[in-house]
Structure prediction request, 328 residues.
Amino acid sequence: MSLSSRLRRVCWGAITIKSTKRAMPAAAAAATVRQTRLLVIYLKHRENPSAICGKKINELKLTKSNLRTQIMAKKETLSSNMEDYLEAIYHISAEKQAARAKDIAERLNVNKSSVTGALRSLSEKGYVNYAPYDIITLTTEGQVLAKDVVRRHETLKDFFVKILLLDDAEAEEASCKIEHAISERILDRIINFVEFMEICPRGGREWLKGFRRHCEDGDTSIKCTNYISTCLQDLKKREAHLHNGSQAAVSLNEMDPGQRGKIIKITGRSAINKRLNEMGVSSGSIVEIESPEPADDRVDIKVRGYHLTLTREDAGKISVEPSITANP
Prediction:
């Protein structure tokens, strides 16, 4: 079917939908809007049809990077309450593939009428696909915003549990409150601090053990000589590890699930390299393998708070220095 024929069908479909009295589902309405935009472009450039398949169409195709930038610029209009709904839908969908109003009400401990009002608002903003008595899913825009909320929550909770040594329940409650107000800059600083703690010989487990004693027992004694000695021993272990030939660095796809390491180098110019760079991932970033099965043709990783899935080919282009000590 030619391009002009397809667009004429779009035009006829749009007229048909407009004339019907039946309420149109949100997903169908969104598709019609996209089709109508293409029709407008076609009508403006009908004397030069090739332009439709060229620059003008490409302008409508947002890459993942600038799509995220545009969506994140809009997130300021969302209240913390609406962000909680997006986060809940994200987690429920991960568990059950899709969410229902009753699932959301149970997770957030609110009544169904409140859920209905929130879903209508999120649907109007284009963040969820919603129709009464139907399943609820996130749109592409909703996925981006929900993942951002989840990233903020997980980063804060990890910081509270692993660095500040708070119990899980208290860390969870604090993360839920702070995740809506924290800026991207502060979040990045927290991630950088945690990475620095793991990389610097003066940090790590022994430093955190001293901090724990200070918090729990009021131990204010400073045993500098012992700590310096421990730091030097750890540093010597790392230097010996680096001089161990091929064992100094491995590709990311050679690491085991749960293993962590420091990124040494990212080679090639694939799309994933550009995506990692836009996320602030570079040499020195700490990466953790999350894949449940090493034999899979993919590698699930967590880096700078992001959960990513790489092909084994792309993972093979990332050189990592595995951690030789347990996580702090």
